[in-house]
Amino acid sequence: MSHGVDIAPSRGPAPPDNAVIAALTAALDKLNRLLMTLSMIALVLTALVLTYSVVSRYFFSAPTDWQDEASVFMLVGVTFFTTAYVQFHRGHIGIEAVAGLLPRRVNAVRLFVVDLASTLFCAFFTWKSWMLFHEAWVDGQTTSSTFAPPLWIPYSMMAAGMTLLTLQLLLQTLARMTNKPASERAA
Predict the structure, then answer these.
(1) Any idea what DSSP says for residue 118?
(2) Which of 6, 136, 28, 4 is nearest to 76 (CA)?
(3) CB 69 within 8 A of CB 150
(4) Roughly what angle, to the nearest 10 degrees, separates helices 19-60 and 67-81?
(5) Residues 1, 105: Cα–Cα separation, whole Å
């Protein structure tokens, strides 16, 4: 845990011991890094779209009707496309009050149970997200604004992002199950 400004980017966890899981983790990490870069660009674009909207409305009395949906859609993409990257670096908020109090083996079991429960929850959320996407696609659902963009766009980003998060959690859980104990790895 860091309480200051990190100058260098975090390297992430050590590669898993299992070669297949390590290769899949490396491939997913490359995809996650690409999505992180695209998400950074989308955040800048969102700021520009909202700034343009305010300037055009205030100075030129020319309101826009598309900026809200465009901004929200980009923010949905940013939110869901970055979750797997954050999970890879174990950057999600966690309560570690008991971690220091538990014996090492008990803490390892606790971490495994948390990873497994998170994987199962995210798998369910992923399935529901794909169902929302399918409904929006088949029914031709749109937003209620005059711009009326199709709702399958944000639902597809949500479903794809949750799929990546579930895969990341699954790979981390499998790595935890197949990795050698720390005492054997150091030898």
Answers:
(1) H
(2) 136
(3) no
(4) 160
(5) 21
Q: What are phi and psi of 142, to 5 degrees?
A: -130, 170
161: left (phi over 0), alpha (psi -120 to 50) or beta: alpha
Q: Tell me the whole-structure pTM to 2 decimals.
A: 0.86
Q: How many residues does the chain have?
A: 187
Q: What angle do CA 3, 8, 10 make, to 5 degrees?
A: 75
DSSP code at position 142: B
State the CB neighbour count (10 A cutoff) for residue 3: 4
Rg of the chain over Cα atoms, rounded to whole angstroms, equals: 21
Dihedrals φ, ψ of 150, to 5°?
-70, 140
Beta bridge partners of 150: 142
Block residue for tokens 């990190």: 6
Report pLDDT digits (tens) over 6-15. 556 666 778 8
What are the tens digits of pLDDT across the range 36-74? 999 999 999 999 999 999 999 889 888 888 999 999 999
Per-residue pLDDT of 65-100, as tens digits, reads: 899 999 999 999 999 999 999 999 888 777 677 778
Break the chain into its structural domains and give their ranges.
Answer: 19-178
- What is the 8-class DSSP label of residue 12? -
Question: In sequence order, what are the beta bridge partners of 21?
Answer: none
